[in-house]
Specification:
The structure holds 2 protein chains of 2 kinds. By secondary structure, chain A is an alpha/beta fold. Chain A is about 35% helix and about 25% strand. Chain B is built from 11 helices and no strands. Classes of the chains: A alpha/beta, B mainly alpha.
Chain lengths: ~260, ~260
């Protein structure tokens, strides 16, 4: 059988600062299968981003196994494309140059990288902005560019850390739909972080609900809504019920 | 746009003209001998009359300044990168860097003459010594200021230290580097003149000294005027290069094709 895209088993993380210790993650188990959209949801400051840094290979777990494509031993950095909360575009690079950043890191020849970046911009409707500097773009546009940069680096596995958290509701909805387009076009596996319950339901195949710190998995929910998803589906009885359940669960955690 | 830019310098212009006018009147009223303090108009007249000689000296000083600044730029940038490479190199080099600025150049310049002779070399060295410090410190600060999240993003892409330096830290440090270079540009000409003052065949420094020794005070002032204009021009040139090199930093909407 094909190994899952991501397998996280018994991962915990303890930060030490002198004599103080901070338990951030307590034995997390989590699976992302190929082409699956999986969301991690939890109260603010529960250690979701720590989990992401570990999966992205920027940080190491104190205990437990993290395997990408069944490989638990090798270097993880570079095997997933990571998109942080802030778009973090390089202000001195134009949109097209920002999108090709990952290819530069991989030392892809410039002409080839530029061509691929242009193709991607064209395909997802940003061709007109190719030569703009990020400073001139709106927040939503910057996130689109950041997402395409992520996809061009590695479309097979995307790690998205609250990418739409800072956007207004309408922009956020249009970006959510746009993300689903991108995801379907590339058959990517996605691990997505949010603390917005509706966003999680609208996008995901499966949702992991984390507790407050130290984070453990409180509940795993399969979202059975048909695809392609539309925002109207959030009004379906099963979606509403799920939203209420998850919100209640998270409210309880937030109070602790 | 251009008019508004000019209007911004209006107050400075008015103040400058006022000071010059007072100077002129003060000397003309006979409070002080025009031999000791020439009037501004006399200085300009002397500059025009002696331009054939002064221009030769000016070119020499300009050459020394530009070579010295070029050396300072290369050395300053390399030093800033070395500081950034490891905590150890920072601890080792930073104190030496600061100490280098405590050396009184007035004492060093004659020694350089003794060691390296009366040619171009020692002057370029003095200019470089003056200029590398602001360049190195500003660039090192710029390199260190890179956003940690951005470094993490590059690390998640499995970028090497050198790639992070080349793709993120260096381009991000360019505005700081240019701030340092602008400061250096205002020091540079003075440094060259200092180097010449203790001994040279040519240059504004030696010209000033010779003029002073032959009591041609008006020519000393003419050389000072040239020095100031030269420094301003270099400052402007650096700003111009910055505008062309960093279009993103100056709010241009679209990349120049």
């Amino acid at each position: 059988m094909e190994p899952p895209k991501l397998l996280v088993q018994g991962v915990s993380k303890i930060f030490r600062d002198g004599r103080q210790t901070l338990d951030t993650l307590a034995s997390i188990d989590l699976v992302v299968n190929n082409s699956e959209f999986v969301t991690v949801i939890g109260p603010s400051g529960c250690g979701k981003s720590t989990l992401f840094n570990i999966v992205a290979g920027v940080d190491q777990p104190s205990e437990g196994i993290v395997a990408i494509d069944g490989d638990a031993q090798g270097v993880r950095a570079g095997k997933a494309a990571y998109m942080p909360q802030q778009p973090l575009l390089l202000p001195w690079r134009t949109v097209v140059e920002n999108v090709m950043l990952g290819l530069d890191v991989r030392r892809v020849p410039r002409k080839k990288a530029e061509f691929q970046a242009h193709e991607l911009l064209k395909r997802f409707g940003l061709a007109d902005f190719a030569q703009h500097y990020p400073a001139t773009l709106s927040g939503g546009m910057r996130q689109r560019v950041a997402l395409l940069r992520t996809v061009l680096f590695n479309s097979s596995f995307l790690l998205l850390d609250e990418p739409f958290g800072a956007l207004d509701a309408l922009t956020r909805l249009s970006l959510q739909m746009w993300l689903l387009d991108v995801w379907q076009a590339f058959h990517s596996s996605v691990l997505f972080i949010t603390h917005d319950v509706r966003e999680a339901i609208l996008l995901s195949d499966r949702i992991y609900v984390l507790s407050s710190r130290p984070a453990r998995v409180l509940r795993v929910v399969e979202v059975e809504l048909p695809r392609p998803r539309r925002s109207e589906q959030l009004a379906l009885a099963q979606a509403v019920q799920l939203e209420q359940e998850l919100t209640a669960l998270l409210m309880k955690e937030q109070q602790v | 746009m251009k008019l508004r830019w000019l209007a911004g310098y209006g107050p400075a212009f008015v103040l400058g003209v006022t000071i010059l006018a007072f100077w002129e009147l003060y000397v003309r009223s006979g409070q002080i001998s025009a031999e000791v303090l020439p009037t501004p108009t006399a200085i300009v007249q002397a500059l025009i009359d002696h331009w054939d000689v002064i221009s030769v000296h000016t070119l020499q000083t300009l050459l020394e300044t530009v070579l010295g600044m070029a050396a300072a730029t290369v050395f300053g940038l390399l030093l800033a990168i070395t500081l950034e490479i490891s905590r150890w190199s920072r601890r080792a080099i930073y104190p030496v860097l600061v100490i280098s600025q405590t050396i009184p150049i007035i004492a060093l310049a004659p020694l350089l003459l003794l060691w390296f002779g009366i040619d171009l070399g020692p002057k370029v060295f003095v200019v470089a010594l003056y200029c590398f410090f602001p360049i190195a410190v500003a660039s090192a600060d710029g390199l260190a200021d890179a956003e940690p999240d951005l470094i993490n993003l590059l690390r998640s892409m499995r970028a090497s230290r050198w790639q992070i330096l080349w793709l993120v830290r260096l381009p991000g440090a360019m505005p700081s580097f240019f701030s340092g270079l602008r400061i250096a540009a205002t020091y540079g000409v003075t440094g060259a003149i200092f180097g010449e003052y203790v001994g040279a065949y040519q240059g504004l420094g030696i010209y000033m000294q010779l003029s002073f020794n032959s009591h041609a005070i008006v020519l000393v002032f003419a050389a000072i005027l040239v020095t100031a204009v030269l420094s301003l021009l270099l400052f402007g040139l650096v700003s111009l290069i910055e505008r062309i090199a960093l279009p993103w930093y100056h709010g241009s909407a679209i990349h120049r094709l």
